[in-house]
Structure formats: structure tokens, C-alpha cells
Task: inverse folding
């Protein structure tokens, strides 16, 4: 699960980098940067959920 | 933005669109693995020894359903497949699909750079926005307005440069779960469009109507055709020969004595025969579908029969050329390892053909694909001028827009020949240079009538 969370963090980074890359690009449509950043945030959120799931699964069970 | 910047700007946007595809695929792979993990955690034995409050299961469930995370992202396996089918790929808010949609919207923006008429067209803009925002009623209205105001021909011509992207968006975002996989395949460039992206009906159903092993029978040209047919030693001559023989179920084979005194062979295959979906010729509509989707067809069988009857010797050099479905059929021959062991397929040249997902058996085969960006037929395999994938970096691809913007006129072999003769001198010269070994004196020219079944073959 931690591995999946890392993959999603990497996806978030790639999306943020893409948003940065096209931010001042006159050819890029105006909606692109905001949408890409929103999706990057969602990747972060999902990574957080998966990390939490992994920690819960590793807790010693009674 | 100057006109000189356009190709660079377009490449930049398409590169970003390709990067988004990679991200979407990674997110989807995570969804598949997380669904598998949750499935394991929900087995009775796992539940019995579950932590108090089923905290890991609840956390995983949250990861796979949270709207501000992956969305409803169940995917694959006995749990993921039925839920994904019930919820539809897009709904609600499935992140992987939305990243893919963002990629498709960026591809449409890239198309607009080279087709400014798209951004100047308010109805088209409404259509693209409505589809991308998953507003079905607004999309249907915009499409109706487009067809009503412009007529079918102009409407299709207007959509053509981004037809593949619009189809993929629609397939991914509509409520029909049966076309989701094809929408994903089209948007990720991972496979041929083997399902109708609107209704989700597999094209194999239609292909299955295309029966027969394919056969050929020599036939004579009319005097008018004899006067028009030339040596097929240049791309324009080949396309004009195909134009001359028409689409009544015939194919032309010529042998040419090259500059090195070697006899080589040129197969010239026309496209689909107009009329009903199925006739007694392999050049019918169902045959065109089959040639696009599958690797063999009655058309390819008939071509093989014609080539054998012409007496092309084993290991001889052969150039396969075709327009529209004829291009797909000759590309199928080039994909056939047995055919390529028997003959040396030196060139495949197609005009207006959907061949993106075909690969020659002999890596030495030189391939040229010529497509007009307003021609819908090459997009039938799901990849059009807005594609962000370089599926065949070694192919010579001529993807151009002529000023007429009219479909189906721009799909006609006459228009392709005229464009190459008058508007595309660089492409014409490059292809003709590649065909140099085939430039020489005509030895023999023979037409064959192609049939679904050999005359004695019982149906």
C-alpha cells in the first residue's frame, strides 16, 4: 500500500510539474493549470488515504 | 503567437497530453491494485482477524471512493469490474478518467492551433465544451445545431480534425458502460477501436458478416481505362491508376523493369465499393471494418490470390499500395509473416487508410501513410490528427490539411492524388525517391476482379 501511495505522490508531482510547465505558455488553454493542480491535490489526498490504510493494516491486532 | 510558432506550440501541448496519459495509466494501475487489496481484506478469514472497527478496510474503501481523492475508482477483479460497470468509468469523479479527459481536451486545444477555424466556430466550441464537461443534453443540442446549420457534409468536415478525441471523450464520459474500454483504449493509444464508441457494439459483430476466403479472377480494362492506366512508378501515378479502375471490386497489379534490370511488382488496391453494407466483393463496408480491425479478410485473401495468379515469383520485390480500405488490406498483407517470407515487401503506401495499429512483419518494409486531417476514414481505428502518440516513429507520415475542408470529398482518391500533385511537393518527391527502384518500363499490367468466394466455393 505504501508503494501505491508513493506512486500517487509521484503522479501528483508530475501533474504539478505539468501545470508549472504550461503556466505561462501562451499556447496552453487557460483552464489547464488550475485543473492539473486540482488533480495533483486529489492524488495527494488519495496517497494520504492509502498511507493511512497501510498504517492501520500494520498495527498489531489484539 | 506567430504562424511559425504553431508547430512548436502544438508539439508542446501534445507532449503534455502524452504525459497526462502516462499519469492516468499509473493512477488506474493504483486503483486496480488497491481494489485487489480491498477484495483480499473483505474475505471472511481476513474479516475475522480484522482490526477493531475494520479500520484498514474503511481506510481502503475511503481511498477508493473519496471524491477529493481517486473518486469511485474500483477497478478489475471480482469486486472492481461489476462496480466499475455499474458506476460507469467517469462516475462519479473517477480521477484516472478525468486526467485522461484533461489529456483529450489538451489534444483538442492542440488541434485548434493548426485548425483556427475550429476556435472561430461557436457551435463547435459549444460542442467540445459540452462533451468535455459531460453535459449530454448540451452536447446533443450543439451537435444537432452543427448538422442543422451546416448540413451533414460540412458538419462532418468540421469535426474531422478532432473526431478521434470527441469519440473518446464521449465514450469515457457517457453513461454507457459498454464503450468505456474502447474510450480508454482510444485515449491511451493502446489499441484499435474494436468497439463502436457510441453504442459499445463490438465491430467483430460486423466483421463476422464479412465471410469468404477471397478469390480473384483476371479481367480486362475498358478501352477508356487502358488509356488512363499508367506505370505505377510514382505516388501520383499510383493514385490516379486507383482512381481510373474505380471501386467496383477490382485491383491492379503491374510488373516494372527497374533501372537495375530487375522486375518488381506494384499492387494497387482501391477502397470500399459504395452501396449496401455487404455485396459479393471484398470491397464492401463490412470488409472495410474487418480490414481495419482484424489482420485477415476476404480482401486480403483475394489480393493474395491475384498476386499468385499474376505469377509474382517467390522472393520478388513487391510494393503494396492502397487507398482507404485498400490501404488497410495491403497493410494486412504486410503484417502476414507467411506472405513476407514468400515475397519481399519493400514498400507499403496508403492514402486515407486507418492503419495506425498495424505493424509490418518485415521491419525493413518502408511505410508511408498519407492522411488528410479532414478525412474521417483514417480515424476509424481511433487515432486522428490530434493524436499525441508517435505509434510508428520510423514510418513516413504525411498528415495534412487542404483548404477545401470537405468530407467526403477530401477522402476521394482523386483529391489525394490532386493534393500530392499540387500541394505537397515535398512529400511527393520523398515518396517518389523511395520508389526509385520501381521506376522503369512497364512489363505487364493486369486487372483482377475480387470476390468474397471462389466461383466453385459453396457458400
Result:
Amino acid at each position: 500500500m505504501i508503494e501505491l501511495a508513493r506512486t500517487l505522490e509521484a503522479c501528483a508531482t508530475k501533474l504539478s510539474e505539468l501545470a508549472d510547465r504550461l503556466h505561462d505558455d501562451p499556447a496552453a488553454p487557460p483552464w489547464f493549470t488550475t485543473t492539473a493542480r486540482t488533480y495533483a491535490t486529489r492524488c495527494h489526498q488519495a496517497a494520504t488515504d492509502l498511507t493511512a490504510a497501510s498504517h492501520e493494516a500494520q498495527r498489531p491486532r489484539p | 503567437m506567430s504562424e511559425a510558432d504553431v508547430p512548436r506550440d502544438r508539439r508542446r501541448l501534445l507532449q503534455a497530453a502524452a504525459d497526462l496519459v502516462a499519469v492516468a495509466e499509473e493512477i488506474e494501475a493504483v486503483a486496480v491494485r488497491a481494489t485487489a487489496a480491498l477484495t483480499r481484506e473483505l474475505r471472511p478469514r481476513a474479516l475475522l482477524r480484522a482490526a477493531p472497527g475494520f479500520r484498514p478496510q474503511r481506510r481502503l474503501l475511503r481511498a477508493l471512493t473519496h471524491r477529493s481523492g481517486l473518486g469511485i475508482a474500483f477497478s478489475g477483479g471480482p469486486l472492481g469490474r461489476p462496480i466499475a460497470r455499474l458506476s460507469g468509468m467517469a462516475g462519479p469523479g473517477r480521477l484516472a478518467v478525468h486526467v485522461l479527459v484533461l489529456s483529450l481536451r489538451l489534444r483538442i486545444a492542440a488541434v485548434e492551433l493548426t485548425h483556427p477555424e475550429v476556435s472561430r466556430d461557436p457551435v463547435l466550441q459549444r460542442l467540445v465544451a459540452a462533451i468535455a464537461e459531460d453535459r449530454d443534453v448540451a452536447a446533443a443540442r450543439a451537435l444537432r445545431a452543427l448538422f442543422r446549420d451546416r448540413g451533414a457534409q460540412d458538419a462532418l468536415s468540421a469535426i474531422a480534425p478532432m473526431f478521434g478525441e470527441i469519440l473518446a471523450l464521449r465514450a469515457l464520459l457517457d453513461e454507457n458502460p459498454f464503450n468505456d474500454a474502447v474510450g480508454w483504449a482510444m485515449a491511451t493509444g493502446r489499441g484499435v477501436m474494436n468497439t463502436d464508441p457510441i453504442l459499445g457494439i463490438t465491430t467483430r459483430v460486423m466483421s463476422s458478416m464479412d465471410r469468404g476466403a477471397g478469390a480473384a479472377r483476371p479481367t480486362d480494362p475498358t478501352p477508356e481505362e487502358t488509356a488512363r492506366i499508367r506505370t505505377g512508378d510514382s505516388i501520383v501515378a499510383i493514385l490516379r491508376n486507383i482512381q481510373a479502375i474505380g471501386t467496383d471490386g477490382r485491383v491492379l497489379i503491374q510488373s516494372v523493369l527497374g533501372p537495375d534490370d530487375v522486375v518488381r511488382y506494384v499492387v494497387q488496391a482501391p477502397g470500399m465499393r459504395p452501396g449496401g453494407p455487404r455485396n459479393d466483393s471484398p470491397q464492401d463496408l463490412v470488409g472495410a471494418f474487418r480490414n481495419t480491425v482484424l489482420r485477415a479478410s476476404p480482401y486480403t485473401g483475394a489480393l493474395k490470390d491475384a498476386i499468385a495468379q499474376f505469377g509474382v515469383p517467390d522472393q520478388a520485390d513487391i510494393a503494396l499500395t492502397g487507398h482507404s480500405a485498400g490501404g488497410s488490406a495491403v497493410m494486412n498483407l504486410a503484417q502476414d509473416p507467411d506472405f513476407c517470407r514468400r515475397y519481399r515487401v519493400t514498400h507499403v503506401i496508403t492514402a486515407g487508410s486507418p492503419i495506425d495499429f498495424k505493424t509490418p512483419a518485415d521491419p525493413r518494409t518502408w511505410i508511408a501513410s498519407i492522411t488528410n486531417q479532414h478525412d474521417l476514414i483514417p480515424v476509424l481505428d481511433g487515432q486522428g490528427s490530434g493524436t499525441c502518440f508517435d505509434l510508428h516513429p520510423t514510418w513516413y507520415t504525411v498528415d495534412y490539411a487542404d483548404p477545401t475542408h470537405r468530407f467526403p470529398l477530401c477522402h476521394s482518391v482523386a483529391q489525394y492524388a490532386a493534393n500530392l500533385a499540387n500541394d505537397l511537393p515535398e512529400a511527393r518527391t520523398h515518396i517518389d525517391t523511395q520508389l526509385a527502384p520501381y521506376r522503369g518500363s512497364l512489363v505487364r499490367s493486369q486487372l483482377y476482379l475480387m470476390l468474397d468466394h471462389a466461383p466453385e466455393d459453396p457458400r
Observations:
- Chain B has a mean pLDDT of 84.
